[in-house]
């Protein structure tokens, strides 16, 4: 069987098991970056050296501006090729995975995590207050740490103003010119978040402005691109440093770390699959190291004072 024909079989096997956006990303990479090279080769004749030649082409690629693929994207391309061969080994008796023999291409690049302090966010929020939907959207993002897709999927029935909570159980995305509401990113993403009282009052105010809305209608009927544009507008107007929308989630986590909450409590609030993910944010407040040292000094001084008092009593 040729690689091209096996890809058709692979598509039939796994397309229905993945989220639509996950499948579209996978399919795009295979069709545009992998299939053109391997399509006519027979699956059982593709060797590790064939994969190495393909990797070298991907590494050497440059666009019209002289820019190549990032290390992270190279790694993603290789992983998609390896996944396809693994599927053939697991279910269709291919003897070995040539992509595994060839070794990985690229590496995961760690992205810098930026965040806003409360003061910076306040300046930004004042700058976008002229548009209600923008102001209340960013209030929810900053003060709850929810993801952008989770925000855009919210409906009135997700809020319980008696218990001061919001339920996160879905995510919004626009794919192939259609609005899609799907399950959240991971199982742990389904959660109920306790809202601060001021935010409850703000959301009540916002709901009062929504005329003709059903309880199941999206309360923020805008696109991700609209909010990205508003983010740029607010940063420019307020003159606070430019960050990405996902950095608002980091900002919320940073705020909770600074307030002294445990990694377990923070992970539960923001829907991290593991507290190991939460620990990655600990470096965002290096001033905590100074605070820790100061508290240790205080503890030591108290111990010395207690020892001196005991010596006096013994004397």
Automatic annotation (TrEMBL):
| Its job | Site-specific tyrosine recombinase, which acts by catalyzing the cutting and rejoining of the recombining DNA molecules.
Q: Which GO terms describe its molecular function?
A: DNA binding
Q: List, in alphabetical order, the GO biological process terms annotated in this UniProt record.
A: DNA integration; DNA recombination
Spell out the family assignment given in the record's similarity comment: Belongs to the 'phage' integrase family.
Q: Which UniProt keywords apply?
A: DNA integration, DNA recombination, DNA-binding
Q: What is this protein called?
A: Phage integrase family protein
* Naturally occurring in which organism (per UniProt): Lachnotalea glycerini
Which Pfam families would you find in this protein's record? Phage_int_SAM_3, Phage_integrase
Provide the Tyr recombinase domain boundaries: 111-294
What SUPFAM superfamilies does this protein's entry cite? DNA breaking-rejoining enzymes (SSF56349)
